[in-house]
Amino acid sequence: MDKIEITGGVRLKGEVTISGAKNAVLPLMTATILSSGESIINNIPQLRDVMTMGKLLAHLGFGFHLENNQILLQTKKITSVDAPYDFVKTMRASVLVLGPLLARTGRARVSLPGGCAIGARPINLHIMGLEKMGARVILSEGYIEAKAKRLKGATIYFDIPTVTGTENLMMAATLADGTTLLENAACEPEVTDLANALISMGADIEGAGTSIIRINGVNRLKPLIYKVIPDRIEAATFIAAAAATQGDIKINSCKPGHIDAIVNKMTEAGVKALHKNDKFIVKGPERLSSIDIKTMPYPGFPTDMQAQFMAMMAIADSTSLITESIFENRFMHVAELRRMGADIKVEGSTATVKGVKSLKGAPVMATDLRASASLVVAGLAAKGTTVIDRVYHLDRGYEKLEEKLKMLGAKIRRVK
Ligand code: EPZ
């Protein structure tokens, strides 16, 4: 199992280019199921999750080819409608084949994802929506078995804005008979990006990016030719790294509108982060100011940045309250940050972070994707050496992270 070793205390300097977004490319890959032919997706990040999704699509009978940062998907022939547990247990986003398979073939058999480190992560809202569209869904032996001659347009209200739930049902609705309304839909940029991709395939969708999305079903879609948007969470992670090391960096290819909430909170914390001709200029202060955050659905402060922000607040000048309102167990990084000298108390969904002068390097363990990013930020800021174990979590969502940080002057290396 690889480890990452960081010797902290270096002020990051220089320029970094952000890769394509993990949470955009995964639904784009499953959207190709809706068409028959060769799809091409560019600006692909080289991530474990992309490989896992490619293997799953190959399992369904598709041709999958990844070269440099481009994917070719040949989706003429479907030879299976099964998404086995082996794929789903390592990547919950496998559930995104459910809607497209049902829309294209009238059948789908997808393993229930099971929980993960950050929470139970049910998919009841995905299933509720498909049943509203006329699918018959049964659960047997840990699998969801869904059947529908042809899905029908329906009005679907989400109790909670769910990102992949919105994506799954938006994809299913593109080929349904009639109009579907998704209400209280997720507004994340990745949802809007998926809608733009589906529209380029011939889908009829309005309102993506708002909480009411209308999809008028069509009879067929053509293959996808598309470019993935930059990863807003990767960009924000680099802002956090510069913020925590009094750094001075430039971030290329990040869409400014995608991280407004993060930039606002970073500015409150004393970070200079401004967007100038397609680059983000980020300057970290001598000492960060403690501020409170509460994670919310987009356009609120994203839950995927909560752990990284906590690492910054661990060395800020007073006390910060961090409330996680999306997932029930997304404080796994707290125990590891404490090993580095952080002063953090958790009560229910709120962590009280009392800033200390500096963290101390220590051996720590990654538990989930963003927790591992938080430990990298903490390691860069800490005095001494930090060794992060189980970095396969990191490899799921960050392309060449240590190379990019090395280019910014960080003393970081991967230990096989
Ligand atoms: C997506 O997960 C992202 N993953 C997550 O990123 C991200 O943290 C999350 O959205 C929230 O922004 C991908 O896009 C592949 P949700 P998703 O459905 O869709 C509850 C990362 O680090 N819920 O929006 O699974 C759920 O329990 C990952 O890149 C139901 O109750 O999240 C949670 O409390 C982690 N029933 C809330 O909604 C459902 O049917 C939001 O979950 C669906 C969700």
Description of the molecule:
This protein has 416 residues and is of the alpha/beta class. The chain has 2 domains: 203 residues, UDP-n-acetylglucosamine1-carboxyvinyl-transferase, Chain (Alpha-beta prism); 206 residues, Alpha-beta prism (UDP-n-acetylglucosamine1-carboxyvinyl-transferase, Chain), CATH 3.65.10. Helices cover 32% and strands 25% of the residues. The protein is built from 14 helices and 24 strands. A 4-stranded mixed sheet has the order 22-23-1-24, covered by helices on one side. A 4-stranded mixed sheet has the order 2-15-17-16. α5 runs parallel beside α6. It is elongated and about 65 Å long. It binds ligand EPZ. The site of ligand EPZ has 24 residues, from α1, α5, α6 and α12.
What's the structural blueprint in terms of helices and strands?
Layout lengths: L2 E5 L5 E5 L4 H10 L6 E5 L5 H12 L3 E5 L2 E5 L7 E2 L1 H6 L7 H8 L1 E5 L12 H9 L3 E5 L2 E5 L7 E3 L5 H11 L5 E5 L5 H12 L3 E3 L5 E5 L8 E3 L4 H13 L3 E5 L7 H9 L3 E5 L2 E5 L9 E2 L11 H8 L5 E5 L8 H8 L3 E5 L2 E5 L8 E3 L3 H13 L3 E5 L2 H6 L3 H7 L3 E5 L1
Parallel strand pairs: 2-15, 3-14, 6-7, 10-11, 18-19, 22-23
Antiparallel strand pairs: 1-23, 1-24, 3-5, 4-5, 7-9, 8-9, 11-13, 12-13, 15-17, 16-17, 19-21, 20-21
Ligand EPZ binds next to helix 1, helix 5, helix 6 and helix 12.
